[in-house]
């Protein structure tokens, strides 16, 4: 199981871009990288998933370098409602999907 | 299509009491998971079931048992509740493609358990 390391917290202001980097040095060849968002009193919600290079959807982009030992979640033009905890997960070939501590992103007006 | 449902939503137990948390999914997912989340902390994996008929320990299995009743249902049992088990419990399910971990986990609304 690849362990992940993320910053504990990040602060931003409305309208700015937020980039959260996750380290996963022991990622396996077949593993995918997935990011989740969690608001207080709710279960996590899927944001984006990727294997290599760049993936973009309507809410975020995911950048994965060629060595795949890290990944960066990019949230463009954040708003107050993007204040949440963001988790990076790496797929495990034994189905053991463990979350780390996550990154608390606080967006201020 | 209800997604992942959990019952009960809230529960208060006395130390030593037992209870079962129920989880069901209607998305035909192969794998199901139980996590706990203490205040201000991340999620910790208790048990998981990669497929119907199999269960495995996660990071914090002590004090818990699970049953994968069928493809839809995965229950978590506390045999003798302790105050340290006060937490929010989340159930999740996913259809994983092959052995890559590719897939999207769907989470239930959680069960808020207090043990006094």
SSE layout:
The complex is a heterodimer of chains A (109) and B (116).
Chain A: E1 9-13, E2 18-23, E3 33-38, E4 45-50, E5 53-56, E6 61-64, E7 70-75, E8 84-90, E9 103-108
Parallel strand pairs in A: 1-9
Antiparallel strand pairs in A: 2-7, 3-4, 3-8, 5-6, 6-7, 8-9
Chain B: E1 4-7, E2 10-13, E3 19-25, E4 31-37, E5 43-49, E6 56-57, E7 64-68, E8 74-78, E9 87-94, E10 106-107, E11 111-115
Parallel strand pairs in B: 2-11
Antiparallel strand pairs in B: 1-3, 3-8, 4-5, 4-9, 5-6, 7-8, 9-10, 9-11
Description:
The complex is a heterodimer of chains A (109) and B (116). Chain A has 109 residues and is mainly beta. Chain A is built from no helices and nine strands. Chain A has strands at 9-13, 18-23, 33-38, 45-50, 53-56, 61-64, 70-75, 84-90, 103-108. A five-stranded mixed beta sheet of chain A has the order 1-9-8-3-4, with no helix packed on it. Chain A has a four-stranded antiparallel beta sheet with strand order 2-7-6-5, with no helix packed on it. In chain A, a hairpin with a 6-residue loop joins strand 3 and strand 4. The N and C termini of chain A lie far apart (39 Å). The model of chain B has no long low-confidence stretch (mean pLDDT 95). Chain B is an all-beta fold and 116 residues long. Chain B starts with a strand and ends with a strand. Chain B is built from no helices and eleven strands.
Beta-strand percentage of chain A? Answer: over 45%
Cα radius of gyration of chain B in angstroms = 14 Å
The helix/strand class of chain B is: mainly beta
Mean pLDDT over the full residue set of chain A: 93
Question: What does this entry show, briefly?
Answer:
The complex is a heterodimer of chains A (109) and B (116). Chain A has 109 residues and is mainly beta.
Task: Name the descriptors.
heterodimer, A: 109 residues, mainly beta, four-stranded antiparallel sheet, 9 strands, 0% helix, 46% strand, B: 116 residues, seven-stranded mixed sheet, 11 strands
